[in-house]
Design brief:
heterodimer, A: 116 residues, alpha+beta, Beta-Lactamase, five-stranded antiparallel sheet, 3 helices, 29% strand, B: 262 residues, Serine Threonine Protein Phosphatase 5, Tetratricopeptide repeat
Chain lengths: 116, 262
């Protein structure tokens, strides 16, 4: 993980309620960089997040909204946020159920800009 | 009119076999004296069991009294006695229209009109039923109208089962082409992956998936454990409002599923 990637991910994990963030290769779902709390299986999460973006991208085209720009999976006990990033990557963040999604999204947008 | 009733009653008292009971019963029915009208009709049928007009009168009294099943029996009996009885065909047309059988209603009303081309009420009834049949032919199938009460007439709301098959609603792509089947397959697949992801990273049961695209928002939720609901709105609708709309649509979907539409 490069220093730049580390800084970008740390910006996201500083949001209250965030459990971690990672950069994933969009194509094959492999981890590029991660800053996750212990207990979260990064490899599997990366693969599933990339797959969900692909599948929902197809749904986006089929419904006319276009490709995925931001994805928010809300669970009863937590949330996963995903945003496409440059260089064929996706930025994935995992947080508590009551994480401030609006704030996290802004941090993720800033992180993506930092990768450009 | 009171004189008419008195005169007809006197006539019937004088000659119990008279067919005057038919106009008498009809007049009593028109006045809303349904018990009296029913008695007159029933005793008339007793004396004249093979007179179709008597059965027709009795059926109309029964309809006014809120007993369509018995009225149907009476009209069917009238038609056995007189297969081209206009009044009985008109009555059967009315009953079938009420039951939603528009083709059956049209058949009876057309027969009624051919039997009595001078009856303006049959012409009017035919027009009503034909208009309803045309409206039905122009409207989408019932499963596409489940979300019709939502803004946009329910467009962009789709309910799929866990296997990716469309249950209700519709979806369209940017060109306006129907894409319901493809969307149902994609969202069911996404729902399965959401479930695995949520389990893997300890998110608990997944509640919703919100997707932002350049030209709109998607919101997925689970009205029931076996179904996935997709709501799509364009960029002019903020994501929070899309989520609220999705909650309402999910409640509608649950009611529809619980009503036995799965």
């Amino acid at each position: 993980m490069t220093l730049r990637h580390r800084r970008i991910l740390e910006g996201i994990t500083r949001v209250r309620g965030m459990r971690g963030a990672m950069l994933v290769a969009a194509d094959d779902g492999l981890v590029v960089a991660e800053a996750l709390m212990e207990g979260i299986r990064g490899n599997a999460l990366a693969a599933l997040a990339a797959s969900m973006v692909k599948r929902l991208g197809l749904a986006g085209v089929a419904t006319g909204i276009g490709e995925v720009r931001f994805l928010h999976l809300q669970g009863a006990e937590g949330a996963m946020l995903v945003m496409p990033a440059p260089e064929e990557m996706v930025l994935v963040a995992v947080g508590e159920a009551d994480v401030n999604v609006g704030l996290a999204r802004l941090e993720m947008l800033q992180a993506v800009r930092g990768l450009t | 009119m009171a004189d008419d009733v008195r005169a007809m009653t006197r006539e019937l008292a004088r000659d119990p076999d008279s067919l005057v009971f038919i106009p008498l019963g009809e007049e009593l029915r028109r006045r809303g004296q349904l018990d009296m009208a029913a008695k007159v009709a029933a005793s008339g049928i007793e004396r004249h069991p093979n007179v179709a007009d008597a059965r027709d009168l009795y059926a109309r009294v029964l309809i006014d009294a809120g007993n369509p099943a018995a009225a149907e029996d009476a009209w069917r009996m009238a038609l056995r006695l007189e297969p081209r009885h206009a009044g009985a065909h008109k009555g059967m047309g009315f009953l079938l229209f009420q039951a939603g059988d528009l083709d059956g209603a049209l058949d009876h009303l057309e027969t009624a009109l051919s039997a009595d081309p001078t009856d303006a009420t049959i012409v009017q009834a035919l027009q009503t039923v034909r208009a309803a049949a045309e409206a039905l032919a122009d409207s989408p199938p019932p499963q596409e109208r489940v979300f019709a009460g939502f803004d946009g007439g329910g467009a962009g709301v789709l309910l799929a089962d866990e296997r990716g098959l469309v249950l209700a609603g519709t979806a369209q792509d940017a060109s306006g082409a129907r894409t319901s089947d493809a969307v149902a397959a994609h969202v069911a697949g996404a729902a399965r992956e959401a479930e695995r992801t949520a389990r893997l990273i300890g998110l608990g049961d997944w509640v919703s998936i919100a997707v932002e695209g350049p030209d709109g928002h998607l919101h997925l939720s689970r009205p029931t454990v076996e179904s996935v609901l997709l709501v799509k709105r364009d960029r002019s609708v903020p994501p929070g409002r899309v989520a609220l709309l999705a909650q309402r649509a999910a409640a509608t979907a649950r009611q529809w599923l619980e009503a036995g539409n799965l």
